[in-house]
Amino acid sequence: MTTTTKAPSVVDVAASEDVPERGRLVVEITTTRPVTVGIFRFAGRLYAWENVCAHQGGPACQGRIVSRVRERLDPEQRSLGLTFDDGTMHVVCPWHGYEYDVTTGRHPGVPGASLRPFPVDEEEGRIRVTV
Ligand code: FES
């Protein structure tokens, strides 16, 4: 049996300004097979994830972008209320609410639930994804 491995393709997908800070762009890329990729920019860095939720395959990258919600506790572990952590950026799957950290692709509360990553970079004002 022979297995053929196709070399990865670097695909120019957008201009840098199409993904502003705390923004997102979802693109369809077709090489050997079509794949939909969400590209996010947070703290100046780009991240790219397949637009397929680990829960039931929903379009996770197209959901709301929110800061992580944290609960503040007093020394006796009583709640002092909820607060947004602007140092963390999440995207929320629109189907059932799975939430992913855009810098890791991981759900913060469900071990093993994560988005499939793609290498992404930018050069001379263009964003490129390797698929
Ligand atoms: S498919 Fe994304 S939360 Fe269910």
From TrEMBL:
Residues 10-129 form the Rieske domain. Gene3D superfamilies: Rieske [2Fe-2S] iron-sulphur domain. It comes from the Bacteria. Its cofactor is [2Fe-2S] cluster. PROSITE patterns: RIESKE. Keywords: 2Fe-2S, Iron, Iron-sulfur, Metal-binding. CDD domains: Rieske (cd03467). The keyword Signal does not apply. Belongs to the bacterial ring-hydroxylating dioxygenase ferredoxin component family. This is Rieske (2Fe-2S) protein. The lineage of its organism: Bacteria, Bacillati, Actinomycetota, Actinomycetes, Pseudonocardiales.
